[in-house]
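Dear colleague,

Thank you for sharing your sequence with our group. We've completed the structure prediction you requested, and as agreed, I am returning the results in plain text so they can be pasted directly into your records. Please verify that the sequence below matches your submission; if there's any discrepancy, let me know and we will rerun it promptly.
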Amino acid sequence: MRPPSPPRPLAFPTLDALAAYLRPRLPAPALASWGTAPGTKNLLNLFLELSCGDCTLLPSAASAPAALVVRAVHVATVRIRNRRGALLVETRQLLSDGTLRRRGPRPVSEKMRPGETPEAAAARAVREELGERVRVRILGAGAEPRVEERESASYPGLPARYVLHAVDAELVEGLPEEGEFDTEESGEGEGHDGGGEAITVKRHYWAWIDDQEDPSDAAPAAVAGGAGAQ
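Please find the predicted structure tokens below.
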């Protein structure tokens, strides 16, 4: 007997169509909290993520008419170390609505696009989150990704499945190697018409840590995407 086919990603031609689909499938206050509760993103953010392939929505395997959907995201987590072996982690993000959102701490992370390898997504994450002048040496991705399932921090009430692809890298030049610092986000919202109403990441706040525990084992605070995975 053939195994059942995996569910096909859902597609929505308009923002209204997405809202109409989600409304009966999420807890009553969920959609109203998106973009209004501190640290969350709004429905337009999700629509843009779906439009460019940063994530997909999959129907739940449950048979109930109003079964929950799952937001599926592939994320590259980039473990950048400096010359003394310290790991670069993100601690906070400044959003376009003025909210300062805590992150992890966790390594540089980026939602992967269709057909993109973890290494290519890692290079894009460095360019967009740390800056064009930063150079790192990509050492390669781990053999097997890790899957985590939990509620989306950016979209409360929406279950998420994160497929985390770890990529190791070494800093070559372009960043302070001690203390804390911040960088400007350059890639989020790029190429999206009407993205002015979406909530975007404006700045990233970083620190080097000596702890050998891998912060990528922690839950994504949001990973992403826009900037990072969330």
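Summary note from our side: The chain is about 15% helix and 35% strand.

Kind regards,
the structure core
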